[in-house]
């Protein structure tokens, strides 16, 4: 019983020490736009943009400093009255297509997604032909010429 109390006190102490760190993960409500429609637009755009630090989260879901800066930039562009397309184009021009969580279909993305299948097909084809070549019946050697027969007879006499 005494051990349980000590463990509980230790757990509570650790939780209290970590509490200030957890507060840092909360985003600043001051970065939100006063107009709810504009804020909703900014959140929609932000949910389509990749956090360049986390790389698997949108800038709306990330608490990284760069994501916070990108959210601010998106909200500035929304407040200026730019369209979603203009804001997305600005981000892509600045950071490349990598900033999009779902990049547009292009030859590059088609090659990227098809490379594993192409590599598998190439490997299977190579293995098939190597197996066929190895298991192919060896060709019969050509018959000996008269000169070769005479030489063989000389060699076997000794």
User: Would you identify the regions where 5 or more consecutive residues have pLDDT less than 50?
Assistant: 21-26
Structural class: mainly alpha
What's the main sheet like? none
Overall 3D form:
elongated
Number of strands: 0
Our Rg estimate from Cα atoms comes to 35 Å
- Compressed to H and E, one letter per element, the order equals HHHHHH
- Tell me the name of the CATH homologous superfamily of the domain at 25-99: Cytochrome C biogenesis protein
Helix segment tally = 6
State the distance separating the first and last CA atoms: 101 Å
Percent helix: 55-70%
Keywords: Cytochrome c-type biogenesis, Heme, Iron, Membrane, Metal-binding, Signal, Transmembrane, Transmembrane helix
Organism: Acetobacter cerevisiae
InterPro entries: C-type_cytochrome_biogenesis, CcmH/CycL/Ccl2/NrfF_N, CcmH/CycL/NrfF/Ccl2_sf
Signal peptide: 1-25
Characterize the structure shown.
There is one protein chain. With 158 residues, this protein is mainly alpha-helical. Among the domains are: 25-99, Helicase, Ruva Protein, domain 3, CATH 1.10.8.640; 105-134. The protein is 64% helix and 0% strand. It is built from six helices and no strands. The chain has helices spanning 2-23, 36-46, 65-79, 84-95, 107-135, 146-157. Helix 2 (36-46) crosses helix 3. The radius of gyration is 35 Å and the shape is elongated. Residues 21-26 have low confidence and may be disordered.
